[in-house]
Structure formats: C-alpha cells, structure tokens
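Lab notebook, bench 4. Still working through the backlog of constructs that have no structural model yet. Next entry is a single chain of 586 residues. Request: give me the structure tokens for it.
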Amino acid sequence: MDKKAAPKSSLDALVSLCKRRGFIFQSSEVYGGFAGFWDYGPLGCELKRNIKESWWKATVRNREDVEGLDASIIMHPAVWKASGHLDTFSDPMSMCKGNCRKLMRADQIWDIFDESPIAEALRGMLGDAGRIATWCKGKGKGVAPGLYTVQHPEHLETIFEQLKSVTDLHALYVLLATPAGEPEALPCPNCGGVMTEPRPFNLMFKTVVGPIDDPSNVAYLRPETAQAIFAEFPNVLTSSRQMPPFGIGQIGKSFRNEVTPRNYIFRSREFEQMELEFFIKPDEAIELLCGHVAKLTPETDLSEPQPDWGWECWHKYWVEQRKQWLIANGLPKDSFVEYWQKPDELAHYARACVDIEYRFPFGTQELEGIAARSDFDLSRHQEHSGKSMEVFDEPLKLAVRRLSDEEKAAFRAKTVAEWTARGKEATTAETFVDRLFEGKYIPHVIEPSSGVDRMALAMLCNAYEEQTITDEKGKEDVRTVLHLAPSIAPVKVAVFPLVKNKPELYAKAREIYRSIRTLCNCYWDESGAIGRRYRRQDEIGTPWCVTVDFDTIEKDGTVTLRDRDTMTQERVTLEDLRRRIMEEVL
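Model written out:
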C-alpha cells in the first residue's frame, strides 16, 4: 500500500473536522451562535487539558524555582488602574459611515479587506481600467454598494488613466473610494463606504459586584492573568520561602471584548492563558554579588541557570525553554519563527520581547511572547497600593558591607550614569542604589506568555494531513489524519475486539481496555470493519490502535499494535504496550 501526502488543507477543512469529531463547537449554536466564543467538545477539552498539563509539568511541577497560582477572574478595579489597563488597554476603532455601519479595529481593516469578496473581485483587474469601470457600474453594486465610484460612476472618467497604472490592490481600493480633490479615504472592507477616524475602545468587559448597579460597584473581567501574579507576589514570596530568581506560573481564563474576533479560535473574546512571571535580581544586584554580570554571546551555555546571569541571559534562556517545549509537543522547528521586536515596537517599559510566530493557514501570527518587562509591574503596584513589593536579600547586604567606600562611590556613580543615559532621573537612580546597599530591591521580570487556544489551533493545523492511499489493486482513497504528539493527543490508545460476537475474545478485549485505561485516556470501539475503525482513530489523532484477535486468547497473549503515522502493525505483549505508553505519554 502506497501513500502520498496532499498539500496542507485550508482552515475550513480543519474547522469541519473539529466540529464533526467533537473538538470544537460554536458557542450557543442552537441559538444561531455567539461570535467570539467557542465550546470545546469531548475531544477538544481533552486536547486543551493535555496542553495545559504539559505546560504545567514542564514549567511548574518539574522545576524547583517556580510556584503555582490560581487567582480569581474578577479582582479589585484598582489592580487595572495600577497596571494601566483602565487608561491604555484599548484598540483603535473605526466605524463605516456607508451602508453597513460596521465597527472594526482600524489596524485590521486591510487584513479583513484582503479576505473579502471585494478584494477577490478586484485582484484580477489590476491595470485593466476598462474591466474595473465595468465592474463598478455592474457587479460592484452588489459587492461594494458603498464604494464612491459605484455610487458615482461618472468619477471613473476622472481617474481612468490612473486606473491603468495602479498595481497595488490597496492603492486601487483607496482610489476607487476617494472623491476628487479630497484626502485619501480609508474604505470599509465590507461595503466600500468611508471609515471614521480611529478612536480608542477599551477591551475590558465590565460587570457589577454586589446587589446595586452603581458606578462605585463596577469591576472588570481580567484581560490577562499576569496582573494577579504581580498583586500576589508578596504573599507567594513569603509563603513559598522562595527568593529571586524564581517564578510564579498560572493557567486561567481571560476576557477581551474584541470587536472583530477572527480566524476561528485564534482571536476570541474568552480564551485561556498559560503565563509565567519569572522574577530575577536586577543586574546591579548581580554585579554587587558576583563582581560582574555575564554577557550574552552566541557561545553562552543556556542549559543551566548561573548565579551571574543578568536579564539578557535569563530572557534568552526562557526563549530557548519555550522553543524546546513547542518542539517536544509536536511543532517542528521549521513551523515557527522567532521574531525579536525592534526598539520602536517595544512597550515603553520592556527591554526586549520575542514573539514566537507560527505559520497558520491565514498567515504568520504570534503564538506566544517572551518579554523582559523590567520592574515596571511590581513598581506600579507598589506605587498604587502603598504596599512594598521589595525583596530583602541578606547575601546582597553582606556583599555591600565588604565593599570599601571608594568601591561604593564608584558603583553609585556608574549606576547613576547608566540610568540617566536611559532617560531616568538621577534622584531615582540614587534612591535605587541606597536601597540596594540595604539589601533591598524590586525584582525584574521575564514573562513567557502563551494562549492555550492558539496553541491548540497551531497543533491542530500542524497535525492535519490528507493522504492519498493506493492499495495493492491500484485503488485510491483519501486518509485524513491528525499527527498529534502522543503527549497531547486526546486519546492515546484505542482498543478493538476483532469481532464482538465471540464472548471469550470480547471479554479479553474489555479486560485489556480496562487495564490500559488506568494509564491514559483510552477509547473502546467494537462496531464496523477494522479498517474503518482505524480511520476513525486517525481522524482524531490517536497514536496507537490495539486489536485483540484469536491469537491473543489461543496462543501467546500478544495483541496487534497499529501505529497511526506509519500504519505498520506488529505483535506486542501487554507489558511492551504498557512500557511504550509510559515512555511516550506519561
């Protein structure tokens, strides 16, 4: 039997599979659906649970330097004032002034246009002024009724020569939307009408805490899980008896009132995050303790953390840790790219940020980010709450005591010069040094942050394949298979009795099924031909299928183990089967 892989299918094929096989459903579908919200079915919730468990195991449970947290979704509104979300957590929004009156993110207008029927119609007309004019006077009335040249076809005569020379689709659309003598219009991607100037729109969901609907009782569903970690930092620090460098990890729901949720579960209004805030000593503290700060070079060994690491080494370390986790969970190295944000793209408080971007069917988009956030978050919460977020470091205080007055003065002068060169006040630097000399500092933070839903989508997209199978008689068939890593596959093993009308064989298969089910999520299927049962398991990504046949009960007790990816079959003992599950899944 020969097989050949078909090209990766579109997102539509994957969406269809996910609904048909019970991975993901549209929320409230019986009532017409609810945009931006999704429900995970029997297989989908197992997939998400496995992704979260893998992240938690690698990031929290298997490390001595990370603690866990599960904070509430609704927190005191002052948290969001301190973090800046109340004032700055907004998207630039524009509304169509034409036919559709739709509201959308200004920075997504061209992305929406590129996938629209208008773009599809115009794309093949670039440079052909005659066809464009004919379209505007005819079919364009149904596709883009708000477009200026559709409503005023006489304007086409004025711009006819320009239409011949325009080779950029976006420039063509702007030309068709702009009246003569007026500034270039930003056209609506849905109807062609003109968009309003962008205005900020806060993305947080409001709610009311308590029985009275009053402005004083307004609260917000959290737009991220990170701020709870910062707010609880003093409590975790004290109760866990940890000291920087150490981290706090959390997995939980977040909510953002996205106006234009798009691309399936990639951008939705309710989603789940896996976030780690890893707290490190400031570089200045490392210099006092170690006499130097390790420089990050291409030769730096990042396999094990070192006492002299500054923020650059720690940041790169977590970038590599996250890449290793992605690869271990089924995303090949060549399926994602590492994008280092440029200085003008960074948040004002960030020293560096790396976006790990995956090549989704709808384009290369951010899968997760690893940011060096300095001490911004803890400092803001200390300022707004009046509660100390400082750490007292006894070894640091002892290291300072060993310095001479001349060494202290030189360190102070060097630190103040470096801070002022970064645009900070000299008095702020002086205060920082004073606190350091007392053994106190506010930790800096490295933040690896990823979305569970985006991760699930990336893994499903990467795993999906349609193979053309040719049997010995030359007959072709298409096999749909999800090549999910065993660690995250919803079902690990499927058990089949060869036939169900033989009581002894059936009972043995049930016995084996119950035995394997104690190790992992296992599937029982007794109906249909074996080939069909195999295909059903291929579609949901089950790594192995076990068939219990007559040799199992009449000869050596072995079973037939069929591999999902290679479709090869072998006879194995139950002990070998359990060993393989333990090695590759648990």
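Notes after review: The chain has a mean pLDDT of 92. The first strand starts at residue 2 and ends at 5. Flag for follow-up if needed.
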